[in-house]
């Protein structure tokens, strides 16, 4: 027997129903905010992710599904959606149009991580990317939209936000931070020591508790933002306050991808164990330019579908459609065209085998049909079909031409 690869899953029945329900709920809401669907390839040139997600990130450094294809190209299965969408945006020259573009997407992402609860090697994201809008109102709108999606799915969350500054305030802060880290270097873990050189900001979200203790006294970017970043961040906080949206400013929230500036946020659930981030995102105003497009501000997010699946509150399943069955051989010839016609409007389950009454009733219940309609000898004689409403239990014989 061949099983799925480690960290990858088949989705069936209840799980696949939940998956579709989650995605369609998110799509309905994204459309109301003006987002249209974008589909980009799963496979991209590896350089796309190196340049955008960043050489020093764990994703690029350790987790890429990267290989040489038969034509000798260095390719990679996408570890996330944003890079491919920015590439598509630039490829289609949308950066040269004055129109603001908003895209939603969903699909499989691949990261070669150590599989554990909430951490898969193939997982799915639903995400949105908004291009051309520099206003902090757009950051707020996106956060509002994610909250609305989680509310619609019945999911509780905590919102953590931070500002990662811009090209004016980040570089001097980085120098300050490096100075601080060099002084505490010997007590920091091996990973942090590596990051002091490759990406000092990432030291701030080290999961090691002894490092976190040392970092309590580190300089905070939030106290060193330039005037514009500070005023935007304050505005975002006040918009969240005015909307009564609970949030926590986490000065150590830096995100694991290198393209962010200004607003960064994560939605956290305390019901799913240690991999608790259910969505993440923020601003990435330099990425379009970085991938050879015209400077275009942008902001977006992605929700991890597998992480929220068990939290999703599904609406009660309703009995649905019609079950058709024959209790006499010749009845199938009548039932078949009926099934085809009825399928234009509703779900139809047609049982091909001639069976007894009880067996058909069981079959109708198994597929959770609303109606069970059967033809036996009597019905054949009378030109009728026996129909039972499985909710109200009402039953009657209906003339075939009226059915
Ligand atoms: P990310 O934080 O890397 O951001 O991923 C977003 C979400 O995907 C996470 O919060 C988590 O729920 C889920 N996720 C990540 N890795 C795994 C995994 N191995 N197994 C299961 N779920 C996982 C991004 O990917 C950015 N592209 C988000 C974004 C869009 N930023 C701006 N626009």
Structural class: alpha+beta
Percent strand equals 15-25%
Q: Quickly name the level 1 CATH class of the largest domain.
A: Alpha Beta
Which outline best applies? elongated
- How many β strands by DSSP? 16
Strand order of the largest sheet: 1-5-6-11-10-9-7-8
Give the cofactors and ligands.
Answer: histidyl-adenosine monophosphate
Task: Please give the oligomerization state of what you see.
Answer: single chain
Task: Please work out how many helical segments DSSP would assign.
Answer: 14
**CATH homologous superfamily assignment of the largest domain:** Bira Bifunctional Protein, Domain 2
Low-confidence stretches: none
Q: How do the helices and strands follow one another from N- to C-terminus?
A: HEEHHEEHEEHEHHHHEEEHEHEHEHEHEE
The radius of gyration over CA amounts to 28 Å
Q: How widely separated are the two ends?
A: 47 Å
Largest sheet, strands/sense/barrel: 8 strands, mixed
Which features does this protein show?
alpha+beta, Rossmann fold, 2 domains, eight-stranded mixed beta sheet, 14 helices, 16 strands, 22% strand, binds histidyl-adenosine monophosphate
């Amino acid at each position: 027997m061949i099983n799925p690869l480690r960290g990858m899953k088949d989705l069936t029945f209840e799980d696949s129903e939940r998956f579709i329900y989650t995605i369609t709920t998110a799509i309905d809401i994204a459309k109301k905010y003006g987002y249209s669907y974008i589909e980009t390839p799963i496979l991209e040139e590896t350089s796309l992710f190196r340049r955008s997600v960043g050489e020093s990130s764990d994703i690029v450094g350790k987790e890429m599904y990267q290989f040489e294809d038969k034509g000798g190209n260095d390719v990679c299965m996408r570890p996330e959606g944003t890079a491919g969408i920015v590439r598509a945006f630039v490829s289609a020259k949308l950066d040269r149009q004055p129109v603001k573009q908003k895209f939603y997407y969903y699909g499989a992402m691949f990261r070669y991580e150590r599989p554990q609860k909430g951490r898969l090697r193939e997982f799915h994201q639903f995400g949105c990317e908004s291009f051309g809008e520099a206003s902090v109102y757009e950051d707020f709108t996106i956060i509002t939209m994610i909250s609305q999606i989680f509310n619609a799915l019945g999911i509780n969350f905590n919102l953590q936000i931070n500002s990662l500054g811009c090209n004016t305030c980040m570089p001097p802060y980085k120098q300050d931070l490096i100075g601080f880290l060099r002084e505490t270097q010997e007590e920091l873990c091996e990973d942090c020591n590596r990051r002091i050189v490759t990406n000092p900001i990432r030291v701030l979200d080290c999961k090691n508790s002894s490092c976190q203790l040392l970092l309590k006294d580190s300089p905070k970017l939030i106290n060193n933002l330039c005037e514009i970043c500070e005023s935007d961040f304050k505005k975002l906080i006040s918009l969240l306050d005015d909307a009564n949206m609970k949030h926590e400013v986490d000065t150590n929230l830096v995100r694991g991808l290198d393209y962010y500036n200004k607003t960064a946020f994560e939605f956290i659930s305390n019901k799913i164990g240690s991999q608790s981030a259910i969505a993440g995102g923020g601003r990435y105003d330099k990425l379009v330019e970085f991938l050879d497009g015209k400077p275009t501000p942008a902001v977006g997010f992605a929700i991890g579908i597998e992480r929220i699946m068990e939290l999703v509150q599904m609406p009660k399943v309703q009995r649905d459609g019609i079950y058709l069955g024959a209790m006499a051989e010749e009845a199938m010839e009548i039932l078949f065209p009926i099934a085809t016609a009825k399928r234009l409007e509703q779900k139809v389950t047609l049982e091909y085998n001639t069976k007894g009454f009880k067996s058909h009733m069981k079959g109708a219940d198994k597929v959770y049909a609303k109606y069970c309609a059967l033809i036996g000898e009597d019905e054949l004689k009378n030109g009728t079909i026996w129909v039972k409403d499985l909710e109200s239990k009402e039953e009657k014989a209906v003339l075939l031409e009226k059915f």
